[in-house]
Amino acid sequence: MKTFDEILVDTAPAFMVAELGVEDVVYLKRRSEISAGDLKKMATMGTLTGEPAELAAAGILAKGAPATEERAIEALVDRSPPEGIGTAPYGQGPVAIIRVLNDDADGITPDEVDRGLDRVRLAWPCYGDDTQDRRIAAIVGQDAGMLALEVR
Predict the structure, then answer these.
(1) Which candidate, 74, 78, 71, places its Cα nearest to that of 126?
(2) CA 83, CA 7: separation in Å to the nearest integer?
């Protein structure tokens, strides 16, 4: 049985992009969960300030940035997918399609993707450039083995 790496390397030529190959990227999953400690702070804040608990909760949650969970994964990155200019008058910024394993441990599952909030850290805009955190704009395809994501 072939490994995921071997499948990606064998599949890359089918996309007709000579430099397309396996890259190490980082999936950045945003979490904005409230912990029990936060609930205690909200209740205390509401009592001390005399504000309703909802206002105290909004103040506490606005101060803290959502936590980010990082997961290193491997992906096929196509940095030049065909695309129209869309609704923007002069076109749009660079777009990439990344294909990852449809798995919650070694890849990304469609159920966990929060479009617009979740990001992928990869060389941008060209292979070999410095890494940047780019947002996942859309899920463009999926099957049992692979998930294709639009990254902007």
Answers:
(1) 78
(2) 26
Amino acid identity at 41: K
- CA pair distance 74, 134, nearest whole angstrom: 16
Q: How far apart are CA 139 and CA 24, in angstroms?
A: 19
Contact indicator for 142, 148 with CB cutoff of 8 Å: yes
Beta bridge partners of 23: 75
* DSSP for residue 86: T
Residue 148 corresponds to which tokens in the numbers above? Answer: 């294709």
Q: What is the pTM of this model?
A: 0.62
Which tens digits make up the pLDDT trace of 102-147?
988 889 999 999 887 899 999 888 877 899 999 999 999 998 889 9
Cβ atoms of residues 11 and 34 within 8 Å: no
